[in-house]
Amino acid sequence: MSLRNKVDIANSLVTTPELVAGLDVSYEAGTRRVVAVAIVVESRTLEVRDISAAHGEVRFPYVPGLLAFREVPILMEALENLACRPEVLVCDGYGIAHPRRFGLASHMGVLTGLPSFGVAKSPFIGTFAEPGKRRGEWSPITEDGETLGRVLRTQTGIRPVFVSIGHRIGLDQATDLTLILSRRYRIPEVIRQADILSREALRKLRE
Question: Which residues of the chain have pLDDT under 70?
Answer without folding.
Answer: 1, 60-69, 207
